[in-house]
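Late entry, written up from scratch paper. The run itself happened at the end of the previous shift, but nothing got recorded in the book at the time, so transcribing now.
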Amino acid sequence: MIFDSLMGMFSVDMGIDLGTCNTLVCVQGQGIVINEPSVVAVKKGTNRVLNNGQAVGIVAKEMLGKTPGSITAVRPLKDGVIADFDITEAMLSYFIKKALGKRSFFRPRVVIAVPSGITAVEKRAVYNSAERAGARRVYLVEEPMAAGIGAGLPIAEATASMIVDIGGGTTEVAIMSLADIQACESLRVAGDKMDEAIISYMKRTYNMTIGPLSAERTKIGIGSAAPNGDEKSMIIRGSDLISGLPREAQIGSLEIREALREPVGQIIDCVLRTLEKAEPELAADLVSNGIHLAGGGALLKGLDVVMSQATGLKVQVVDDPLSCVARGTAVYLENLAQWKETLESDDDEY
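Output as recorded:
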């Protein structure tokens, strides 16, 4: 314990938002030092990362859908959990070493945000991957708790705070009070499902197939959950399903809104189910405190409007929703002794 405390004085401890789409690393005293896609380029049929282990993140994402037969660009996390153990370990190792820089003599303590609905087996996979990637000690914190703290919500007070964290693989909905989660739902419908919905719409309506990057760009460019008086259109390029030849189509924001109706509806239903679980006093607090949106999905235009109409509560997007989970892990890191009762770790000591 004493030795670990001494190591803690010299190690560069970090919080990690290990997301399906992006991984963010926050270092104590420095803020967010890494924000890169959770993508790894490997030799096909192996787990060997290209470029001496450097084909990770931004470099690898640029290869998605464009790799030759001998290379595969892989997203090792699916629906917020590890789908490929070895590649996740390689990705974490790359990000941890990059965050440490030249200060890599002491292995760091790491706080990792995970979906609230993951199983014990999935948690163990996170522990093992982080430890083998170079972490000295690993702590897990539930994503909605980290998002609430990173957003500056008063989750430690005797009042209800509600967060809806829409990431790439999962949507985490939680009502928190007195430093704990009182009611929560974890839904494996989020940004990726929105992209898939756009891809399916293009196939059904235009007999055209597009890639996930094109779908994501379309969602960001003209996607919306509610009319906003500023209907736009854009050109989408892909392949004709019949001829197989390249082609393009012009699509409007009204069509994308229709394509996103199902995943948006599932998220709204998840929010309503969580509200139904709230104790009466907490529900009363939410009338004045409202709902806070975090994660990349919070940036979908009009989502706050639709959610407010469905719940009757005020809904607002938190400041910098993309990074609030990572910021929350950093706060946990700074207050491990205070938060140890709510943290899960690979060791009872901290």
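The chain is about 40% helix and 25% strand.
(Scratch paper discarded after transcription.)
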